[in-house]
Structure formats: C-alpha cells, structure tokens
Design brief:
With 485 residues, this protein is mainly beta. It is 5% helix and 44% strand. Strand 3 and strand 4 form a beta hairpin. It is globular and about 90 Å long. The protein starts with a helix and ends with a strand.
Length: 485
C-alpha cells in the first residue's frame, strides 16, 4: 500500500505542470525616444487564461555578440475581446480559456552604463527583445521552442530626435473559423510621426538570430494551411478575391491578411513586421528607422457562425483643404446561406486625427457608417494615412473582420483668381499661380458651363487672363485649370 501511494504521488507531480503549463499566445514590442539615446520600451504579451499565471518577463538589448539584460516592470493587465463569452474570470490566474494582455515597460539609456557599451563600440542597429518559455506544445506547423520577439532601431541616426515606433491598432486574432474566409488586418497607428511603413510576414525565432524550424509545407510566408487547389497543396498562388480566397495573402501596404483556413484543429503562429522609414530632406533619401513585430497564436476551430464582411473599397486621393467622406458598409449572412444573418457591430481605431466615423442607423441589422475627414490646408504629405475598421456580429465577438484603408492627401496648388461681370454679359477673369512646390506650373485654360447640373458648355479657351460675353440669363460656372510640371 505504501508503494502504491508513493507511485501515485510521483504521478501527480509529473503530470500536474503539464495540465497548467504556461501558454503565451503572442505579443509585440514597441519603443519611443524619450530624449537623445534614451528609449522607453514597451513589451506586450498575451497569456492563455486556462494556463499558469505570468509573473515576470525576460528582456534584453541585443546587437552582434552583445547582450545586456533589461528589467521589465509590469504596468497593466487587461482582458481582450477575442473570447466569445468565455473570458478570463480571474486576473493572472488559471480560469476560463480566454486571453489576457500583460503590458511591461523599461527604460534603456544608451548614454550610461550598462547600455553605453553599444555606443562605445559604435554599434548602430540594436534589438529590444523579449524571450520567454511558453509556446503551446500543441502547435502543429512549427517547433514550439522559446518565444522570442523584438523591435529594432538605429541609434546612430542622431538627427532623429523624436520618434515613436508604429503600433498595431487591432487586437490579435487567436481564433479563426475553419473553411470560412478570414479577413484580418493588425491595423496601424503612427499618428505621432506619420512615417513611411510597410508590412511583411516575418520568421519565427527562439533566440537572437536563431530561427525556429517549420514543419513540411509551412514557412513564415505560409504559416497556416490555406485553401488551395489541388487539395493538400499549401503554396498555391494567393488569390484574395477568389470565392473562397486561395493561398495565403498579405497586403504589404495595409497588413490585410486574407486566406481560407482549411485544416480544422490546426494550431500555428503568424508573425507580422512593420518596417518604418523617414524621408531625409538633406540627402533626399529615406532613412530606415527600424521595425516592430507581433506574433499571434492561431487556432482553427469549427464554427457554426459566418463572420461578417466589410465589402467597402477605399483607395482615394484627396486634396489638402478639402473634405473626404465615404460610406462604410457591413454584411452578414446566415450560416445556412439563406435568410437574414446576425446583427453587426462596427468600430474603428481612430487612426486618422480629426476624422470622424458615425453610425448611420444604430437599429439596422447590417450597420453602415459615414467616415469623414476635413483635411487641413497644410495637410499634404508623401505618405498615406491609415485607419482600420472592425466588424463583428452579435452572436460572437471572435467572429470578426477587420479592414485597413489608406488615403493619400495631395498638394493643393497655390493660386489666386478674380472673376468680374461687366455690361452686356461680359465675363472677365484673371488667374495667377505662385506655388513654390510647382514653380513651373502653367495655365492650360478656362471653361464656362451653364450649371453643374446641366454641364452645357458656353465657353472654352486656353487663356487664364481674358474675357468673353455670355448672352444668357442665370448662373454660370467658371473653371480654371493648369498643369503642374
């Protein structure tokens, strides 16, 4: 009897850690320049709440062969929305199978020890990194290993005295429906600096410059099993507009991820990278400022609910000083394919300052919203501005879609004009261009039409300073045009 008791005790000790082993479902790392060569580093990790608590986080600054430890301090714990009625019900404890967001911060000052060793050795590219044990043992697309995430910056760009790295504005998507199209964007916030960015998929790592091994058929560019023809192939050409979408597709401009998960029960990891650039007016080139990364553990589950869709397409150019408005629509169909779907909820990330998003009818089943942006006179810029829309249905907020839109603001040429009306229907005009950005701009003509509604032409000529007689009563519209060279 005593032997059996000892064996039972040993058995419990061996298996109990496996029942509650910690699982980190992903994370991201950001940085901000506080003062010259001094950075505030923020690390976010997502814990699976039915596993062990998270009490600390290991971090370091890495470059070449140098590794200097960081001392992260947790500043916040919060629940995220991708839980579908089964959220974490105990903070940082074993509870329901939801997900919990842990935020850590530390300050890295390269002016003083121990971090000044990077400056003393004239090392430019440094990596703010976290390394933590806790990848799920159930991952089927790659080896588990340690979770390693970083953000890289160039500390030798001393003329960059202000910069906050771009951030992902949307929560990770940990649960995706099997055999139903996924439309997801991690979103982008860079409202402080408005730098140039691009998205890419990135290789998983277990340590600094140590990649994780993928299983056959998978890579960081194909991290999950997409729907392909013929069946069993994973690397087919991405066709995001096919019905259903084929292959694994990422839009490098917006981060939009589109594919149809086709392996029910699969567990894999998607890793995003945002590269950041800033235009250097001294040499006319773009400086690469660095990148930030995000990982998210993705589970493909069988769903009885069809996620909503955001069919609206926006890829517009608006002149500074003008207002841009667009209607954003959502659709949701029943799982059976017939009859009405669920009630949608529509949100956005406030990605463009001074813009607004207003729901048209809060009682409508499929919500629509008006997005409007009054662009300032001095609002022209080379890089586009971004905002991201989220739509989820009333059945389950894990069945959602996100979409990122970009809007370019063009330069409104500086000009002056004067139109005068004389006797006997005489119309006289004088137009001048004084735009420093386009010093070679030239006038190309003037047209006069009856009204905007009729559009009937009354006059057309190639002079910006001239006059003519209009022998009709009523309103007229005068339009001056010029070429920007």
């Amino acid at each position: 009897m005593k032997i059996n008791l000892l064996l039972l005790t040993a058995f419990i000790i061996l298996i109990s850690p496996q029942l509650s082993a910690q699982v980190i479902a992903g994370g991201e790392v950001y940085y901000e320049i506080v003062s010259p060569l001094k950075y505030k580093v923020t690390a976010i990790v997502y814990r699976k709440c039915d596993k062990s608590p998270l009490n600390s986080l290991n971090g370091s600054v890495n470059a070449d062969s140098l590794i200097v430890a960081m001392k992260f301090k947790r500043v916040a714990i919060s629940k995220i929305n991708d839980t579908c009625g089964n959220p974490c019900n105990k903070q940082n404890a074993i509870s329901n199978a939801g997900f919990e967001k842990h935020t850590f911060v530390d300050t890295v000052d390269f002016n003083v020890a121990p971090f000044n060793v990077f400056v003393n050795k004239k090392i430019c590219l440094v990596s703010f990194a976290i390394r933590h044990y806790g990848r799920s043992s159930g991952i089927s697309t790659h080896d588990p290993g340690y979770l390693y995430l970083d953000a890289v910056t160039n500390i030798c760009l001393t003329h960059i005295i202000k910069n906050s790295s771009p951030q992902f504005s949307m929560e990770p998507k940990f649960l995706v429906a099997c055999n139903l199209p996924l439309n997801y964007s991690p979103g982008l916030l860079d409202t402080m600096d408005n730098d140039s960015i691009n998205f890419s998929l990135a290789e998983l790592q277990s340590d600094y410059k140590t990649p994780l091994a993928y299983k056959t058929g998978f890579s960081y560019q194909i991290p999950m099993t997409p729907f392909c023809l013929p069946s069993g192939v994973t690397n087919c050409k991405p066709l995001p507009n096919a019905k259903p979408p084929r292959g694994f597709y990422l839009d490098v401009n917006t981060g939009m991820t589109i594919f149809t998960p086709s392996n029910c029960g699969e567990l894999g990891t998607i890793k995003y990278r945002i590269n950041e650039y800033r235009y250097n007016i001294k040499n006319g080139k773009y400086d690469w400022l660095g990148y930030v990364t995000r990982e998210m553990l993705v589970e493909v589950y069988k769903s009885s609910n069809v996620p909503p869709d955001i069919p609206t397409i926006i890829n517009s150019i608006v002149c500074e000083g003008n207002q841009f408005c667009a209607t954003i629509k959502t659709t949701d169909r029943a799982t059976s394919g017939s009859g009405p779907g669920d009630t949608t909820i529509l949100l956005w990330d406030h990605g463009i300052k001074d813009a607004t998003l207003s729901i048209i009818d809060s009682t409508a089943r499929e919500k629509q919203a008006i997005f409007c942006w009054q662009v300032k006179i001095s609002g022209a810029r080379v890089e586009p501005s971004f905002f991201t829309i989220t739509a989820y249905d009333h059945v389950c907020n894990k069945d959602l879609s996100t979409k990122t839109y970009k809007i370019r603001v063009g330069h409104a040429p500086q000009h002056a004009y004067k139109n005068t009306l004389g006797k006997c229907g005489q119309v006289k005009w004088n137009m001048s261009i004084y735009d420093s950005l386009y010093p070679n701009a030239q006038g190309s003509g003037t047209t006069i039409i009856r009204s905007l509604s009729s559009g009937r032409l009354l006059y057309s000529g190639n002079k910006l300073n001239d006059s003519t007689n209009i022998f009709e009563n009523g309103k007229i519209v005068i339009e001056h045009t010029f070429n920007l060279n």
